[in-house]
Amino acid sequence: MTEGNEMIHHTALVSDGAILGTNVTIGPFSIIHDGVTIGNGSSIGSHCEIGVFSDLASEKTLIIGVNSNIRSHSIFYIGSKFGKSLTTGHRVTIRENTIAGDDFQVGTLSDIQGDCTIGDYVRIHSNVHVGKSSKIGNFVWIFPYVVLTNDPHPPSEVRIGVNIGDFSVIATMSTILPGINIAKGALVGAHSLVNRDVASDTIVAGVPAKTIGLTSRIKLSNSPEESAYPWRRHFHRGYPLEITSEWLTEIYG
Fold it and tell me: Which of 50, 83, 88, 241 matches a 20 to 30 Å C-alpha distance to 120?
């Protein structure tokens, strides 16, 4: 079912059981399956498959919020729900039972293995693996080639997901072991192997990762007198003014 003004390429296949909002664009050779709802103003690139069936899905629906942009060759399984302004890179895979908030961005060649919960304004860069049962808070940054694992003694039937708190940053090529809790505002340094819980506003780095100190000790390279963390003190690009104003009030009073 469509609501009008949609732009569907003649090679795309859209099921009669899908619901498309207004001003939705579907690119060449993409497939939209039964149970899919795509919000107003959204764009699906070429060669995407949206709503792939899975016996593991708790719901046989897939909801993609308004003003979303799913780029070419991406695959979304049935059973998930995404808030407004979802943005992907190319060749992204997101499995069933993934619940994500508003303004979720996930980069090219990243995969989310399902049964995951993801907050608002999360930024996942390219080539990131998010293991099954991961929990990611709000305003989290995960940089390229990070791996969130979930099997404590592979291969097994045990799944213990990683839990990442609000405002945390996981730097490139780090691996987080199963069941690890990374608290609010923590920083994991590049190329780290995290095998212990990380306290809030704390830096860990190394293999295995060790506590280095509080994030506030790191200074901005272009402003040595100013602390780089909490990063929301100085980095506001891409966030609504009402949110950044709340951050500054929280930090400075």
Answer: 50
